[in-house]
Amino acid sequence: MANMPTTPGVYIEEIPKFPPSIAAVETAIPAFIGYTEKAVDDDATTLKLKPKRISSLVEYESYFGSPQKEEKVTVQITEVLDANGNTTLKAVADLKWADRSLHVMHYAMQMYFANGGGPCYIVSVGDYKALGTEVNQADLKLGLTALEKEDEPTLILFPEAQRLKLIGNFGEVQDLALAQCDLLKDRFVIMDLHGGDSVDLDSADANLIDAIEEFRDAGVGTKNLKYGAVYAPNIKTTIDLVVDETKTMVKHKRSSDGTDETVALDTLSGSDNKHYELAKAAILDCPCIMPPSSAMAGIYADVDNDRGVWKAPANVSVTGVIKPTVSISAVDQGGMNVDPTAGKSVNVIRSFTGRGTLVWGARTLAGNDNEWRYINVRRFFNMVEESTKKATEAFTFEPNDANTWVRVQAMIENFLTTLWRQGALQGVKPEHAFYVAVGLGKTMTALDILEGRMIVEIGMAAVRPAEFILLRFSHMMAQS
Q1: Residue 2 within any structural domain of the chain
Q2: Per residue in 333-364, pLDDT tens?
Q3: Which H or E run contains 140?
Q4: Distance CA 358, CA 366 (A)
Q5: pLDDT for residue 258
Q6: How many angstroms separate the CA atoms of 394 and 389, rounded?
Q7: Residues 88 and 182 in one domain
Q8: Do 216 and 125 sit in the same domain of this protein?
Q9: From CA 403, how far away is CA 126, in angstroms rounded?
Q10: Residues linked to residue 260 through DSSP beta bridges, in sequence order
């Protein structure tokens, strides 16, 4: 009792015996850094370079606007003779990769929420640039700097970074993101390949292998690789492209004389409704090609909520996808999944007969590191480290003695025991799954105590995915 009583009587004193508890932090709060149509808050102030937390596509559109309209979609309407000799009209829309809008943030949000995403942060680095203008590396770096001040985000991605003109600029942005993860130790980077699936997706010799080699050579350095993962190839999505009807050209046959005519789509809306509707339907059928990072952010969130951050975000269906832009076989994937030189593993998105499009990889960029090879292990440690850090802040300036050490140790052990029971740690009993040590002669010397240091050592046996399942069969001799 701090104050000894001076008046006769009965006094009640409550003595705290239970240690405080640790609450697990959120594990899948991504931050999307890129360009938006607008960036205006409720009070009409700018949101440029001001991270904004949202929870739905409606909120996104309220603060950041709509997609940038595509201007170079072309539609060809032709006459087709069917088996019965009847003539029908067929419309096909085309949009070359090189002609796509560079700004895909709105589409990225659609993929994120479609795949199970929840709350997230948007960091607008500026308004849309005109078509043909390059994505600016300096703008993305400013957005990353603004994000550093936010505590809640746990994932970082740049949906438009693959359209940076130079691989060196791409690599610099991603390296800075990895460095921020290492500094704060509470976040993880989801990357796309620079340039999409190749340097030129529209060329006949488009090669995913070339894009991967370029990424490994110059797309990211060798530092902090355990804090990032890259996914490929790009994916053909079911998202509806938004087009500028005044600049979308339609080539069709005139009903009056049968000659070909090329006109803007908007002019058909009043003069030729039949061709207008055919062209609109063809545009809806034109696949919107997207980098996979935004869909993966949604999958991370969905797997974390359903199974836990310790479950690898792999062997999971990708929603809203027609198919990957490149078909990859098991043999092809071998060199992507394992990089013997630098360990820069590339996680593949593949189509499987009867199963759809699945995420078929779970490695960080530190693919040769036994400690940090798997995404779920790195992100699980991020969660435990950040949760424990926040809880132990309550003990700052408490007496550095055995009473405090016991409470801290019990608090952390209770938290890890709960995680072990949920399947996050490997071991048939808690002492096989983790240990917590703190105290004089264990983790601290007398000098540590004199200098105000309380050192807690925590060891965990995190579960790892069964990446390779080997079934061994052999003949046996008849027994009867």
Answers
A1: no
A2: 999 999 999 899 999 999 999 999 999 999 99
A3: helix 137-147
A4: 22
A5: 66
A6: 9
A7: no
A8: yes
A9: 53
A10: 253
Residue 81's domain comprises 74-96+242-285
Question: Looking at residue 369, what is its pLDDT?
Answer: 94
Tokens encoding 219:
């797309």
**412 close to 436: Cβ distance less than 8 angstroms:** yes
Write out residues in the chain with pLDDT < 50, as ranges.
Answer: 198-205
Residue that finishes a domain, picked among 285, 309, 339: 285
Alpha helix positions (H), 235-374 = 265-271, 273-285, 293-306, 330-337
pLDDT score for 78: 86
Indicate if 150 and 215 belong to the same structural domain: yes
> Residue 197: what pLDDT?
60
Return the structure tokens found at 377: 């292990």
> What residue type is 453 in one-letter code?
R
Q: 152: helix, coil or strand? A: coil
Residues in the chain: 480
pLDDT digits (tens, 9 = 90+) for 242-284: 999 999 999 987 655 667 789 999 998 878 888 899 999 999 9
Contacts of 110 (CB under 8 A, 6+ apart): 57, 239, 320
Element (H, E) at 449: helix 446-450
- The maximal CA–CA distance of the chain, rounded, in angstroms, is 113
Classify residue 17: in a domain, yes or no. no
Residues 215, 130 within the same domain: yes
Instruction: Name the domain count of the chain.
Output: 3
Phi and psi, residue 442, nearest 5°:
-105, -60
pLDDT of residue 206: 52
Reduced to 3 states (helix: H, G, I; strand: E, B; else coil), residue 433 is helix
| Per-residue confidence (pLDDT) for residue 256, from 0 to 100 | 57
Q: What is the bridge-based pairing of β-strands 120-127 and 52-54? A: antiparallel
What are the DSSP calls for 405-419, one per residue?
Answer: HHHHHHHHHHHHHHH
Rounded (10°) angle between helices 105-114 and 57-64: 160
Classify strands 87-94 and 74-81 as parallel, antiparallel or unpaired: antiparallel
Average pLDDT taken over every residue of the chain: 92
Q: Which of 130, 194, 133 is nearest to 158 (CA)?
A: 194
Q: Are 180 and 262 in the same domain?
A: no
CB of 340 within 8 A of CB of 223? Answer: no
Tell me what pLDDT residue 11 has: 87
pLDDT of residue 457: 97
Shared-domain flag, residues 252 and 136: no
CB 95 within 8 A of CB 73: yes
